[in-house]
Amino acid sequence: MAWHDIFYNSKPFNLNITISDDVAINAVIEELIPKIKLEPKDRNKKYLEVLILNVFSNWKMKSDMWTQFHSGVTNYKQKSRYNGNNISKLIIDIMKMMLKHGYLIQSGYLNSHEKHKKSYTARLKPTENLLGIINKHKMDFNKIEMLPDAECIIVKKKQGKNNIQIEYEDTDYLIEAREDLIAYNNLLRSTHIDCVDIPKEAGIKIGKNKYPILVSQKNKWVQRIFIKEDNKLLYGRFHLGFWQQMNREWRDKIQINGLETTEIDYSGIGINTLYDINDLEIDDNDPYDLTGYYDSNKYSKEELRPLLKQMLMVMINSKNYIQALKAVEKDVNDSDNGFPDDIDLKLLMKAFQNRHQPIKHLFFKSMGNIQYFLDSSICAEIIKHFTFKNIPILTVHDSFVIDIGNGDELKEVMIDCYSKVLKNYNKEIKVTLENKQYDQLVSRINTIFANSKYPEPSNPVEEMHQFQQQQYISPYVTKHTLEDYIIEDGVGFGHKRLFKDKDYKQRLLDWRKLMIWKTDKNYYYSKNNKEKENNK
Fold first, then answer.
1. Nearest partner of 422 among 283, 276, 316, 279, judged by Cα
2. Cα–Cα distance, 293 to 287 (Å, whole number)
3. How many angstroms separate the CA atoms of 62 and 56, rounded?
4. HSE, side-chain direction, 13 A CA sphere, residue 518
5. What is the DSSP letter of 121?
6. CA 249, CA 206: separation in Å to the nearest integer?
């Protein structure tokens, strides 16, 4: 495999990994210690455990997946809030022992000082020797988790061209944000989130990308990342869920607990927030409709919309016009984005500025983090609402995926939360239903209830249940019956449905056997709250 493939086909080393099966991992460690000539101290055993869990879990998700491993000692700060296992630089020596005795293979350079070689973070994979020991002691991949108190609120600060993680002091705002996100991660942990029709060999690849998205129940944990700038916390967007890497075509195939989903997004939230935070009026027309400002005989406004959304993001993040133009040109030249590549970008950017003359002075001022903080705050309110009701929802910043039965409520909540955060209670906020069948489904279910063919639902869970049972003729299943759906512990499941994708059906059934939603509902927790409970 070429180094380029190894470099990109890898996952970061996780300092917050653990496993609930002590017997299996202890047996693996006890067998390895004499073989790699490691001193049998508790500290060494812990470091070895974290190393094994990382390479094994990544290999298990995808057999050609590598694990990124940093050799710099500054990456292992024991007292850091991001280092839940308190791993020190000594793990580097243990990694080298595993390499020396044939239990790991490495690609990349740990610390290359040769000018003709690039110094990348090393990539690691388990060898057959290590996998043999793991299989011998029956270590269960399903029992590998994030630490229950893993830090999910990340604060970064700009350093050169990069944003680096920094330590920070908690505030009331961050404490509340953490508690909300912990509750959300607990809900995601007990929810089966998957896609139908994933190609067996290639996996999900977007555009010309060679490397597939890791769709896995181990790839659902979400972080919220803030940027510290002038002693203010900005940005605050939600990251890491595998669905965020997907395009709309693949997000349409997402199933939540075996139920179909719909995606709803805000119409022009980026533009609207810029107007609203400056108390400016925006007209009622589509903010991405440039009719009268830019005329294209080749592309419709719908075909230009994705490019204009990206252009807006670049314009509010750039320091000047030249920087913005170069960034947009780079985006257009990236074939994975699918943007039209035969457009005069200078004319298009000028037309966009003229279309939005009232906020023209806000472009090229590097204020994107402020705008992102607003949309992340709206997003946080929406997530909080549905988490409280035990309804799983997935976010792609200003777009949300939810089971079809709860789509109407999501529309209302999105409008309410925008008004709450922006304090525009009298303003009409528009949202867009990405599932083109949705309006037809709502019309059909209203007709059925009007004819009293089925009783009026008595609660939201039952409404979702009936909606799924009677109205949505899914392209992914071969048969629709009342018996295909159940509600268990307040959670709707479609695991009895006859899915055309047999592999998806088996993954769903295997996951149900774990019955995670019945136990450990509060698996994730904050250290602060745990200490308060222990002191009672």
1. 276
2. 12
3. 10
4. 7
5. P
6. 10
CA dihedral 421, 422, 428, 432 (to 10 degrees): -60
Give the DSSP per-residue string, 444-487: HHHHHHHTTSSPPPSSHHHHHHHHHHHT---TTBS---GGG-EE
Find, among 391, 388, 410, the residue nearest to 400 by Cα.
Answer: 410
Say if residues 515 and 495 touch (Cβ distance below 8 Å). no
Query: Taking the model in full, what pTM does it have?
Result: 0.85
**CB count in 10 Å sphere of residue 175:** 14
Strand pairing report for 10-11 and 66-69? parallel
Do residues 87 and 47 touch, judged by C-beta distance below 8 A? yes
What's the mean pLDDT in 12-31? Answer: 95
Our CA dihedral for 354, 359, 364, 365, rounded to 10 degrees, sits at 170
CA quadruple 332, 333, 336, 340: dihedral sign: positive
Angle at 494 between CA 491 and CA 497, to 5 degrees: 165
Strand partners, 234: 227
88-92, 431-435, 502-506: least confident range: 431-435
Q: How many CB atoms lie within 10 A of CB 508?
A: 22
Q: Please, are residues 61 and 219 in contact by the beta-carbon 8 Å criterion? A: yes
Tokens coding 43: 């500290």
Read off the pLDDT of residues 510-535 as tens digits, 9 standing for 90 and up. Answer: 999 988 888 888 999 997 765 555 55
